[in-house]
Amino acid sequence: MNIIELNGIFVNNFILYNHKEIILIDTGFLNGISFIKNALLNIHKKLEDIDYILLTHGHLDHVVHLKKLKEISGATIICSKEEQIHIDGKYSYKGINLVCDGLEKFGRFYFNYKAIKIDHHVKDGDILNILGGIKVIHLPGHSIGHLGYLFLESKYLFIGDLVNTRRKKHRFPPAIFNSFPHLIPESIHKVYHMNLNGIISNHGPRLSPEEQWNRFRIFAKDYLKQKIT
């Protein structure tokens, strides 16, 4: 399996491929399609060759190009069913998360965003027979249906927006984007106790999966200790 990390503005997304299949994890944000197209050209592929689009969750910066990419490639869209309401732009934000609501409404207008249906719903523990096997890991907190994807051969876990790696250490996304913060400790605990070789986050500078995993374990150990005490 090969990984291409697309470091976009505000958010990263990823192309994973072997000699048979091409997967896109999330769709990128500003100039997202151009980034994807150029990266595929470098491996002598094109947008039409994308087989699957795996979504970590339905926030706009992860799905803004979803409909267009589906129309071009015919790729199968995979996500938890709970995220369809976000993809539809109909989630009812409350409290501090109304700031996120306002940002997404502006973004949908700016990008002329069009919603699309998920093709295949997945849940915690499901195995996808793609690229040597992918295990679906439910990591709620950022949103209720937020998912991670564990690639079984490499033991790399794509963690979406569970944490980011800005400023040389792991941090949580700003509170305005976390709709279910009371569920975050459970998700942190879950990842911390997994047998992994590396993790990959959608937000932060380009770091190896191994380095991100090392930083996460330090962060999670301190965080969970504070939650207990």
Can you walk through the features of this model?
The structure is a single chain. This protein has 229 residues and is an alpha/beta fold. The protein has one domain: Ribonuclease Z/Hydroxyacylglutathione hydrolase-like (Metallo-beta-lactamase, Chain A, 4-Layer Sandwich), CATH 3.60.15. It has 7 helices and 11 strands. The protein has a 6-stranded mixed beta sheet with strand order 1-2-3-4-5-6, covered by helices on one side. It has a 5-stranded mixed beta sheet with strand order 7-8-9-10-11. Helix 6 crosses helix 7. The longest helix has 20 residues. 42% of the residues are buried.
Main attributes?
6-stranded mixed β-sheet; alpha/beta; globular; 229 residues; Metallo-beta-lactamase, Chain A; 20% strand
Please render the helix and strand layout as text:
Layout (H helix, E strand, L loop, with lengths): L1 E6 L4 E6 L4 E4 L6 H10 L10 E3 L5 H4 L2 H8 L2 E4 L4 H4 L10 H13 L9 E2 L5 E2 L5 E5 L8 E5 L4 E5 L23 H9 L5 E4 L7 H20 L1
Parallel strand pairs: 3-4, 4-5, 5-6, 10-11
Antiparallel strand pairs: 1-2, 2-3, 7-8, 8-9, 9-10
